[in-house]
Amino acid sequence: MVDIEGIVKRVLPHRYPFLMVDAFVSQDGDRFECIKNVSFNEPQFEGHFPGEAVMPGVLVVEALAQAAAIGLAVREGAAAGDPGIGYLTGIERARFRRKVVPGDQLRLTGTITRFRRGLCTVDTVALVGEQVAAEATLSFLYAS
To answer: Helix H segments across 12-127?
Structure first.
């Protein structure tokens, strides 16, 4: 596992409060895994929802998109130099299966299913333990 300074901040342009990936875990060909630790101190929990903190689904999808951008960059050799950047262009088949709450650790996993001339498709899954919290197929324009 590589911490946030190791690769995440080198690959992603996002910063607090919108950086949604805490660690890069692994890359095996087109498969990747990252981690997001969900903390009660995150700003969205003040208003979503008062009395019952739930991570907004759109932020879970954002975490998946950031993890996928890391997976794309690592696949394309980010460790060797300029990482390029993945621009999210589409979200398909997004499904939410369980609430994500403070104290959860999201395992952000995915498989790059298409990468042709910078156009990419990634099947992603967010897990809490072994339970699926969310899944989506994401499209990117990857520019190096």
So the answer is: 57-75
How far is residue 36's CA from residue 55's CA, in Å, rounded to a whole number?
12
Q: Is there a catalytic annotation at residue 14?
A: no
Phi, psi dihedrals of residue 6, rounded to the nearest 5°: -65, -50
The residue from 48, 75, 98, 99 that is catalytic is 48
Q: Which tens digit of pLDDT belongs to each residue from 51-87? A: 999 999 999 999 999 999 999 998 988 766 677 889 9
What CATH fold (topology level) applies to the domain 2-143? Thiol Ester Dehydrase; Chain A (3.10.129)
Q: Which residue has the tokens 């952000």?
A: 108
Where exactly are the structural domains of the chain? Answer: 2-143
Q: How is the beta sheet containing 105-116 ordered, strand by strand?
A: 2-3, 23-28, 31-37, 105-116, 119-128, 131-143, 85-96
Residues in the chain: 144
pLDDT tens-digit map of 78-131: 766 677 889 999 999 999 999 999 999 999 999 999 999 999 999 999 999 999
Measured over the CA atoms of residue 112, residue 113, residue 114 and residue 119, the dihedral's sign is negative
User: pLDDT tens digits for 6-51?
Assistant: 788 888 999 999 999 999 999 999 999 999 999 999 999 999 998 9
